[in-house]
Amino acid sequence: MAEPAVATTGRRWVFEGRQVTLPVVVRDATSAAATYLVPSAAARRLLPGPELDVVELLPGRALFSIAAIDYRDNDLGDYNEVSLALFVRRRGERASVPYFGAALDLVRNRVATWIWKLPVDQRFTCAAGRGIWGFPKSVAQIEFQDVDGRRRCRLVMDGRHVLTFSVARGGRRALPDASMMTYTYVDGVLHRTPFVSGATGVGIHLGGAELVLGDHPLAGELGSLGLPKGAFMSVWMEHSYGRFEAPAPC
Prior knowledge:
- The chain is mainly beta.
- The protein has one domain: Acetoacetate decarboxylase-like (Beta Barrel).
- Helix content is 12%, strand content 58%.
- The protein has a seven-stranded mixed β-barrel. Strands 11-12-13-16 form a four-stranded antiparallel β-sheet.
- β11 (141-147) and β12 form a beta hairpin.
């Protein structure tokens, strides 16, 4: 279980005897990610409150992402992470052009996220992520393997297989620094966390992801979204970096 936050000032915390000062900087990470079109009604059932709504790329189809991240140099340590997230908007906000506008916002990294599950394989980053931002982190077994030009991630929770996920490695594109936003709930109050991220060695593909679900209850919840299925798109980042600011109430 994650240790409660101990706040020393407005921008400093202590977890397990280690101090965290904001912004938290990510200097080097690799990331394998895929985005799926899932039924909007099923996606909305995952949302924890009325303030957020899903982004629809097509009528009745929301955007759900799976990302497997190897943080190699990070203020919160060297650890592995799996992110299961929805692309969201504040309820009442709309793209300037329905559906087409959402596609443009997605390409331009202008769509906010709400993270549903965020397993990691280290206790310290779990405690810090939950205590500072309200991220839904938990400690799990996460193993990465590079096989036949693909990054494979296997997630095990409570001794049971949740998923095995892979995308193709390699790419020559660069993504310039972009300002993005993620939403969390802290003590029941919706907060927004701004962060900046960029990457090099980026490969972007239509489809291209492979997903196998296991027998853990979380795998069943993923199945309720219609997974596994073909991905809308997949992205590999050989070298990503960024920084996370303090959360602020909405």
